[in-house]
Amino acid sequence: MKLYELVVVAAVAGASCFGAALYLAPKMEQEAPAPATTSIPHESQAQELQPRLSANSVQLRRENDGHYWANANVDGTFVRFMIDTGASTVALTERDARRMGLDPETLVFDWKVRTAGGEVQGASVLLGSIQIGRIEVKNVEAMVLRDGLEQSLLGMSFLSQMESYEFRRSSLILRQ
């Protein structure tokens, strides 16, 4: 067979397969059973849906408000953070800063920080460590924001120290 004959044979075979697919597709849709609405995966299937976590990983669930929240140990003080990949740094409320032993009266608020609520003043601080479950990052740059922040934000000065972070269905997985 010559090359052009092979091309013609391949084209005819491809068209035949395509035609068969067009013919069978509607029939397969008609014969397919309706999906079960209350199926509960078998235990082995449920485990396959869950990501495998390493020793230095944390899985956070999306909460009812649509956000991911982390309970962290910051230099020995519990702080609840909203995860914010759009924040360039960890941002602390004055209330959380006080709880951690930082005195906002002695901080220098010489940074102008743009937030969703507008521009606010920020004071640069260095946190000794932030620990969430099995992961810990030391020497984390942060800002204490004056006004305009209802909750502390876990931003990229922490997240960029992760090996990866992955959104999977209703989970956020942090890997160090």
Word description of this protein:
The protein is an alpha+beta fold and 176 residues long. Helix content is 26%, strand content 38%. The chain contains four helices and ten strands. A hairpin with a 2-residue loop joins strand 2 (69-74) and strand 3 (77-83). The termini are far apart.
**Arithmetic mean pLDDT:** 78
- How widely separated are the two ends? 59 Å
Please provide the count of β strands: 10
| Computed Rg | 27 Å
Number of helices: 4
- The CATH architecture category of the largest domain equals Beta Barrel
Q: What share of the residues does DSSP label as strand, in percent?
A: 35-45%
User: Low-confidence segments, ≥5 residues, pLDDT <50?
Assistant: 2-51
For the sheet with most strands, the description reads: 7 strands, mixed
User: Per CATH, what is the topology of the largest domain?
Assistant: Cathepsin D, subunit A, domain 1
Structural class: alpha+beta
* Helical coverage, percent range: 25-40%
Assembly category: single chain
The geometry reads as: globular
Structural domains: how many: 2
Sum this structure up briefly.
The chain has 176 residues and is α+β, with helices and mostly antiparallel strands. The chain is 26% helix and 38% strand.
